[in-house]
Amino acid sequence: MAATTFSPSFSTPSLNSSSRAHKTLTNPNLGFLASVSRSLRSLKATRLTTDNACGSAMASRMVSVPAVQTHISLDFETFVFKKEKVSLAGQDEYIVRGGRDLFKLLPDAFKGIKQIGVIGWGSQGPAQAQNLRDSLADAKSDIIVKVGLRKGSRSFDEARAAGFSEENGTLGDIWETISGSDLVLLLISDAAQADNYEKIFSYMKPNSILGLSHGFLLGHLQSKGLDFPKNISVIAVCPKGMGPSVRRLYVQGREINGAGINSSFGVHQDVDGRATDVALGWSVALGSPFTFATTLEQEYKSDIFGERGILLGAVHGIVESLFRRYTENGMSEDLAYKNTVECITGIISKTISTQGMLAVYNSLSEEGKREFETAYSASYYPCMDILYECYEDVASGSEIRSVVLAGQRFYEKDGLPAFPMGKIDQTRMWKVGERVQKARPSGDLGPLYPFTAGVYVALMMAQIEILRKKGHSYSEIINESVIEAVDSLNPFMHARGVSFMVDNCSTTARLGSRKWAPRFDYILTQQALVAVDKGTPINQDLLSNFLSDPVHGAIEVCAQLRPTVDISVTPDADFVRPELRQSGN
Q1: Quick one: 145 and 192 in the same domain?
Q2: Binding site: residue ranges?
Q3: Is 146 exposed, middle or buried (0-12, 13-18, 19+ CB in 10 A)?
Q4: Which of 262, 293, 324 is the last residue of a domain?
Q5: pTM, 2 dp
Q6: pLDDT of residue 465
Q7: Residues classed as catalytic
Q8: What range does the domain containing 434 cover?
């Protein structure tokens, strides 16, 4: 069999902002506006009304532009699955659709693999181990899915409760699991990967496959001038949602032809030509509705950045800033909480998930649209300011280094005490949130508050623009900036609260939120809200760009690939990792 290929090609987007060509989407079945203008708009050419602007420094920042990168168009070849071409905002990209009807192809995709070792029981480990086990059982495959944990881990009991056991060879020590597996899915924390990668590599069999669900380890190795051993294949399948949502939707999709969380996949090294189909099989087995190609480097840049932006850190900062503003201006605490947290995690997310960002704006009254426009115009560039800095910190390796160093501070060293992450949920806002959530009627999505909507959508659009100018594919941009937020994280935050997520999600995301949320809070308070109070005129070009941005059409295409099932999250939904449980502290 010929080697499976995975090859990137590059194209440079048009950046002529003064005479933007109209792009026509030719598929008659897409059901959205076919002709869009101002595609791939330039950040540097926005015309600003400066009569009441926030000073020359602010104006200078508004015309700054991130360096434009070439768009990476990733093509791949698969011998097992059907590859499809989709057009997203005029760019051709390639995907593989999922579905339970494809489980029968898993033995072919996993040819030569007798054991899959799932290392770790954190956010992704439980979901991926169970989904893989169940999918392979459905395919009547004899491939063993074995969970590997460190000796003495409190997670052994939870793994046993999920059906894994030492007696049937599906649960064991981390090192024996790695050495005995043909495909090793390394799902321990990023900091633990950075601390243990040398030992992990030494235990892997030659010609085995290392699977990652995050490109963090590559970024860490690059920062040290290293790479992976050359006698193993290295792949990634990265669900665009946290582990509990990966499992929850998989279970919900059993009665239909599957439901789940979209995934990206990448092939960093392929020693024997199997890597692409193994990665695609892994993604299909997880229940991914569609899988798109990326590189490990593009993945970790967009993912670590996204966690600090729209997915968690920026949302945390936004709601803190707006709650404080609303209450200071006389709004009751309960209503302020509903108009910030409940609004974003409920009705806004539901609307974007099913109808897109424009539907949020179009559903408002004329007065509501003016409030939205005021908030959007004032917030877009301040949000972009912090997002731009954050992306470059990730891309340069600075943020990865920060995560590694923070992990080391969790323990005593150099004669200094340990500093594990503390909780954020005891402040006034989050105690109000507990009261509001307890009183909330079942199914209540909260109010659509126009000002909050304008700030949140401005953040989302600013993140999309940063990723677009940095050369990421539309599949990656939309999944990282829109779908993961509204279809995975926000529903869990609606059920349990933003503070609960900040206190209990992955270590890397929790660290990022604590570091970057205050930056979004402060810049909105010090610049965006000041501009609103000063009566700074609405930037009409900015609003026009939003209304005509080609990303809306691309989101519509992705929405058509969305499963028919909405994630169902109960108010007591548990996604706390074992080491964070109160009983274990």
Answers
A1: yes
A2: 303, 307, 365, 480, 484, 506
A3: buried
A4: 293
A5: 0.84
A6: 98
A7: 214
A8: 306-410+420-548
